[in-house]
């Protein structure tokens, strides 16, 4: 029946798109709808690093499944996946100790990693300052993506190869259960009907169920990033994560020494104030993306984050990056900020309304790494029966 589906997925970002992908893989009839002409939220405004190594044990499993899914799709259709590994660079003995402890954890989890000496790091990453690096931990299985390209190619793959129905420019203004069906009303006047609706709304909390989000513990993080001009013949492979990443990423929370090392950090630094940790990732055009910072506001006070780029933050990040890597040029061609939502007290926000409407958002900075694997499990949980007859 026309406009009737097993599942309508609301939100064309990475989380919504992979929910749609896995629903189709189950043999369901699926429609993916996106309010804008193309996705332009956090999915396109990030580094493009897929780093299960930075996740806690639970989310590392989702991230590793994501790696498998990304690579499988890439073998069929170019979605910009490059398997060039990730490295964490320690700048002192404390950070090196955390790398040693994380490697032991990964060995027990059967996740491949390799300690690198100072000289191995210097040989592998040209421009890396010898007065910064002490050791490294390398994850060969991890990949990078081009965030401004990947989601569009993934949706092209789904629409052309998988024949998924995708409706762009379809703002949903109403979603209500009607008997055994859920009616999804678009601003254009078109309505869709679904047995299940999955709402992956990112940080858009004003259109659907605003009262649910107002009562939640969701918050929004604003991240500033920038991109240099192309670096000529210079090549920097993979994702480069540094000492501040070691002190920030959840994987390291599980290391025995983490708590004591974290407690020794100064509380009044600019790095703490702005939530900065320095990352580098080279894009396919030779430019280098670097950043980032983190500023927070509750879900119902997003406007408090402002609409401007704070140039003091950008200047601070560039100066700190120069202490780590001597790039051929630090001339910046593009600056931007991205926003993602996360929960203060849990790892993702999920709420079911009327038994058939499932809100899934607040995945935080785990989206690019964890969405593909998490969505597979979540779709299987939501559709715990065989294909529905329409």
UniProtKB/TrEMBL annotation:
Pfam families: DAO. Gene3D superfamilies: D-Amino Acid Oxidase, subunit A, domain 2, FAD/NAD(P)-binding domain. One of its GO terms (cellular component) is cytoplasm. The keyword Nucleotide-binding does not apply. InterPro entries: FAD-dep_OxRdtase (IPR006076), FAD-dependent_OxRdtase_HpnW (IPR017741), FAD/NAD-bd_sf (IPR036188). Residues 6-375 form the FAD dependent oxidoreductase domain. Keywords: Flavoprotein, Oxidoreductase. The keyword Flavoprotein applies. One of its GO terms (molecular function) is oxidoreductase activity. Its cofactor is FAD. Signal peptide: none annotated. NCBIfam families: HpnW_proposed (TIGR03364). Belongs to the DadA oxidoreductase family. This is TIGR03364 family FAD-dependent oxidoreductase. It comes from Flagellimonas sediminis. The lineage of its organism: Bacteria, Pseudomonadati, Bacteroidota, Flavobacteriia, Flavobacteriales.
